[in-house]
Amino acid sequence: GNFDCMYDPRSYEQITVGQVVFREERAFFDYWTSFAARSFRKRAPEEPTPDYTLSQYRIQAVLEPDLRLRVITRARLTPSPTAARVLTFYISPRMRVSEVRIRGEPAEILQPDSLRVNLIRGDGNAAFLVVPAKPLEARREYDVEFHHEGAVVSEAGPRVYFVGARGSWYPNAGMHFTRYELAFRYPKELSLVANGEVVEELEEGPWRVTLRRIEGPVRLAAFNLGDYLRERVSRGPYTVEVYANRRLERSLEPRPQQVLILPPPSPPWTSRTRPPSGPVAVPIQPPIPNPTARLQQVAQEIAAGIEFMAAHFGPPPLKTLTVSPIPGAFGQGFPGLIYLSTLAYLDPEHRPPSVRDDYQQTFFSEILHAHETAHQWWGNIVTTSHYQDEWLMEALANYTALMFLEKRKGPRAVEAVLAEYRKRLLAKTEEGREIESVGPLVWGVRLRVSQAPRAWQTIIYDKGTWVMHMLRRRLGDERFLAMLGQLRRRYQYRAISTDAFRRLAAEFLPSDSPDPQLENFFAQWVYSTGIPSLKLEHSVHGKAPAITLRARLAQSEVPEDFSIEVPLEIQFA
């Protein structure tokens, strides 16, 4: 069939080969390979220079009663010396850009609908092109204005809403750290939350207008909408505001059930009398779960998580953290704003049967909110630039959540989670392969393959967490936490690569480490695949004090050149 071979000299990896595949009503771009072109391999590695930066965002958004979002986004555009004549921006495919002006002059817009391009990017956003009326001068600042609108908010239940474009409802490119001013106009019977501090809020007829300012440098602005209850908790200089929907989304409403009622015993019937009636089906509506059941508990736990993480990693990007519900089984952490699955708000006994096993209950009650809180540091202060390094932010956030779980529930709770992760990594794909074998951590978005749709999430989150756990064991608790603190200080508000992370971690190894640069560790667990099975056999010969102990450790399920360090402990009674 058809396949794509692409060359982009501005990309970190210039050559990409793959194919668009449709499977089970989903579209995938299956990467076959991606690498640097020969002419680039001969040069010293260097970071591609972005065509431009966008800074000082000023966004005015109007959310109509029909949930259509109309936005005017203003920003400061600074071209680089290598900028092309045509500028590329990114926005949700749910938004259409109708007008762009640069220094007041209209610019030409091209916003093609390209499934292929969107799939290759892997983030769900769509590219659009802008051609300025005049060529732009390098390093000169230009005021740019975008007019765009679309349906990025949908109804998920009575006054329950789903924001589908959480970080891409306005144009962006490269997600540079900058400051934002946000103005929202929306129906006054609803509540709208966003990152940043409220500067002013007022009512104008049927509308409420909220002005917000994000003082610290952040890469993204986001908002959420609903009919909320609020719980506010302050811990030292930090404030946590947790919002919960007053009503439940439709997808979580339990389905009506039928109970069969048998008739009461009756005298014997004769052929001349009517026969006994059979069972009667009576419909019963199960109780509706309360979406505010854990509101106070979630607020207290997130506040405790902020304290725990700030003590080890330094202050979060913003002093106020807002948490609000999102329909679905996921969460997402933006600077100062967390989207948290409604399932995390429900009483565990009232969650759907599909998420009531031990791990799922731990995930929605303990891990998810801590994971998204940890993204305040890993992803919103320290970042990555390339898909090869994205695993770092998820692994760091998830392992931070497990360290917080360990503090609250003890090491056995963490061991149970890690055992579940190992089980999922060793699960089989439809082709009979172990999911972990689909590809190494550094493949990032290339792990989103049609043959194993779960591979990306399982490898990036589960194996990445295991890598952090093994690294902690090598460094020891004190050195590991010191390394994370140094990671935040050294790389705050900039990107780190996988190799830079390896070098940083190596600085904190004990002096007698047999792998002093962690090169073997990363080669096996980050840049390669394989989970070995180990079998230990031993025998004891002789009598005390002349005892001989023989031990044999066998490794299987991995190639012969797969080498690991295994500590052996011998105890004498």
Q: In a few lines, what is going on in this structure?
A:
By secondary structure, the protein is α+β, with helices and mostly antiparallel strands. The protein has 10 helices and 29 strands.
Mean pLDDT: 93
CATH architecture of the largest domain: Sandwich
CATH topology of the largest domain: Immunoglobulin-like
Write down the Rg.
28 Å
User: How much strand?
Assistant: 25-35%
Total of domains: 4
Uncertain regions spanning at least 5 consecutive residues: none
Structural class, by secondary structure, is alpha+beta
Main beta sheet strand tally, sense and closure: 8 strands, mixed
Helix run count: 10
Distance between the first and last residues' Cα: 67 Å
Strand order of the largest sheet: 8-7-11-5-4-14-17-16
- CATH evolutionary superfamily of the largest domain: tricorn interacting facor f3 domain
Helix percent reads 10-25%
Q: Which of globular, elongated, flat, extended, rod-shaped describes the shape?
A: globular
CATH class of the largest domain: Mainly Beta
Q: How does this structure look, described?
A:
- With 573 residues, the chain is α+β, with helices and mostly antiparallel strands.
- The chain has four domains: 4-41, no CATH class; 52-226, tricorn interacting facor f3 domain (Immunoglobulin-like); 228-254 and 288-376, Neutral Protease, domain 2 (Orthogonal Bundle); 381-532, Orthogonal Bundle (Neutral Protease, domain 2).
- Helices cover 23% and strands 34% of the residues.
- The protein has helices at residues 38-41, 115-121, 295-313, 358-374, 390-409, 411-425, 455-475, 477-491, 498-506, 519-525, and strands at residues 4-7, 15-23, 26-35, 52-63, 69-79, 87-91, 95-102, 105-106, 108-110, 126-131, 142-150, 153-157, 160-163, 178-187, 191-194, 197-204, 207-218, 223-226, 228-235, 238-245, 257-261, 280-284, 320-326, 332-334, 337-341, 382-383, 494-495, 533-543, 546-556.
- Helix 5 (390-409) packs antiparallel against helix 6.
- The chain is globular and about 90 Å long.
